[in-house]
Amino acid sequence: MNRQPGRRPQRAGLGALLLSMCVSISALELELPLTIPYAMVRQALADSLFQGPGAELELVRDNRGCNHVRIGAPRLAAGAPGELLLTLDIKVRGGTPLADLCLLPFTWQGRVEVREEVYIGLAPTALAFRVREARLRTAEGGASRVPAALWTTIERQLRPPLERFSFDLGSVLAASFTTVGTVYLRGTAFEMRSDSVALKAVEAGSTELRAMLALRLPDPPPASVASAPSAPLNAREMAAWDARWQAWDGFATWAIKTLAADAPAALRAALRATLLDARHRLASALSSATPAADPVRELFLDTWRRLAPLVARNDFSRDTSKALQVLAFINAGDALQALDTLGGAVGLRLNQDGLRQLARALAPGVLDNELEYSTALDPALRALFGFPPTLELAGGATRPWLDFFVASAHAASDDPLDAWVPDAGDLERYLAAIENLLAGIAEHERKQGQLAAEFFDVYSPLLRATAWQETCWRQFVRRHARLEVLRSAAGSVGIMQVNEHVWRGIYALDRLRQETAYNAQAGNEILVHYLVDYAIRRNEHVKSNDLHALARASYAVYNGGPRHLTRYRRAQTKPALRAIDDAFWHKYQAVRAQGPGAVKACYAGTHVQG
Questions:
Q1: Within a domain: residue 478?
Q2: Same domain, yes or no, for 449 and 536?
Q3: Which end of the chain is more exposed for a tag (fewer CB within 10 A), N or C?
């Protein structure tokens, strides 16, 4: 884009305003800040001026090849206040052409330092750049020895391509408008006009460009359509809530898998934790008898506050189009967050179409079915957690060795445990069979080598105490003479109470309900993940000066999700959660002191089938 003579950068009034979310509504104009990392601008500049990685741009060349100048390797950083500093490598060959000769030839390599200012270009969605000053430096930063006349020629040739370069953010702004418009109008048709999106101001910061984005929205729908009910949900609203939470869960799962696909290990771990926390919060909302009028809104806002900074850690020096898609995704999500602050008839009320538009900001070609809620096994999700493609059962899928403990009359499947609800007469045999199952799982874990031997004194009682805490070592109960899997109000099932909402796609839900061994092995896999990747990695035993604090931390995460890692040692932990942690700690100590037989205390004075 050509520079605009006489037009000054629009920078007034930004300052600290751009450091935090700023939203105003005037004539239905939504404003919010947009940050563009310098790495992204540098890559766009390289794509514009050069032909691929390591390529150079030839600025000067005479007919005889005596004089030529090439630049390359652009670097971009903050310069003086409000300025950008662009640094380019430069290679100079000079001399005096005479006939077929090049007299007094010389070569020189150094760098060009260019001070630039940024402003909004002719197009309201594009950033343009003006050269304030350019100077030559040696590679070490000293003054150059290039003749003044040659430098004048170089500078004259350098300015035009730098000032023709513009960084068009139209796709980013369009994604924000489309996403916000879809949610804001709640299904009403809308059209983006030429004046619907614009950049209002821009300035150079310490690590990024900071711009103010304006979205000019059409008139909102009538308040009667837009207003969210404040009373508890009725049957119709509950059905709509079911559709919306499934749309949200499908979107959140897709987004985190997509972002984690080529992310470094630390970022993958953070994304994994974000997914688990989002699903734990969803499970909590689903277990509420009277959910709030719009639980999906809270789920989105809570997850987005964690997800957006993680997304911003992407490598913006990669392919420009990919980087723009990531930026569009961040900005569209931020725009939805900004919409929420307006409240009332204008505020955030997410729907499936809005989530699909947000997904397309990150991946324009994503298909609707990729965003759908599904309970099918998903190898990509298991890979995200570092789990093998399928869950390996310790000792195989069937356990004929259990016949020693279990009378054949109990066996409704290949595994006798899959139909056994103990009564007072066979409680000893039942608990011995479960102990054999858990011991086999523990031995299998030892052979896998994921858990260091020094931690097995914690892991062994942790596994048994967790199964005790969750279900008293039971997969099933009988109610009205009918065999039923143990199920919590939050959707957790079986002996290890594996939550079907949190762990969908990672385990086969039907097997979690029907197979004791599968459920126990799944719970063990989750527990070891929390022990190794959370409690041990974050040194809970060192911080508490107690090796067995690892068990307390691991169970807290198992019970509530990654955010709960340290709740066992926090003074402000809610009494209900502290009671859960204290009960687990009592069971863990009992298993350590008495062995698996301590679990019999769970059945003392109770009806074992209830």
A1: yes
A2: yes
A3: C
Query: Quick one: 21 and 163 in the same domain?
Result: yes
How far CA 102 is from CA of 61, 92, 94, 149, 196, in Å, comes to: 13, 14, 8, 17, 58
SS3 label, residue 420: coil
The reported pLDDT for the residue numbered 292 is: 56
Which residue positions in the chain have pLDDT lower than 50?
A: 1-27, 224-230, 396-412, 607-610
514 and 577 assigned to the same domain = yes
Pairing of strands 492-493, 476-479: unpaired
Residue whose token pair is 């997410």 = 350
Residue 10 is predicted with a pLDDT of: 38
Residue 535 amino acid letter: A
Q: Give dist(CA 69, CA 92) in Å, integer.
A: 5
- Domain of 145? 15-168
Q: What is the pLDDT of residues 423-449, one digit of tens each?
A: 888 899 999 999 999 999 999 999 988
Tokens read off for 387: 């789990």
**Could you please report the per-residue DSSP string of 278-347?**
HHHHHHHHHT-SS--S-HHHHHHHHHHHHHHHHHTTS-TTS-HHHHHHHHHHHHHHHHHHHHHHH-GGGS
Residue labelled with tokens 């890692």: 565
pTM more than 0.85: no
| 159: CATH | 3.15.10
- The DSSP string of 491-553 is SEETTTTEETTTTBTTB-HHHHHH-HHHHHHHHHHHHHHHIIIIIITTTHHHHTT-TTHHHHH
CA 377/CA 477 separation, integer angstroms: 27
Q: Are strands 197-204 and 29-37 parallel, antiparallel or unpaired?
A: unpaired
Same domain assignment for residues 448 and 595: yes
Reading the block at residue 522, the tokens are 């799944």
How far, rounded to the nearest angstrom, does the alpha carbon of residue 261 sit from its chain's CA centroid?
11
Per residue in 256-311, pLDDT tens?
Answer: 999 888 888 899 999 999 999 999 988 888 776 665 556 777 888 888 888 888 88
What is the number of alpha carbons within 13 Å of residue 328 lying toward its C-beta? 27
Euclidean distance between CA atoms 283 and 493, whole angstroms: 13
Rounded CA gap, 532 and 489, in Å? 29
pLDDT one-digit tens code per residue, 355-364: 888 888 888 8
Residue range 455-468, pLDDT digits in tens: 999 999 999 999 99
What distances in angstroms separate CA 231 from CA 227, 237, 290, 292, one per listed residue?
A: 12, 11, 9, 8
Which residue(s) pair with 129 in the sheet? 118
Q: Which of 117, 149, 168 is the last residue of a domain?
A: 168
Q: How far apart are CA 185 and CA 192, in angstroms?
A: 13
Name the DSSP letter for residue 599.
G
- pLDDT number for residue 228: 44
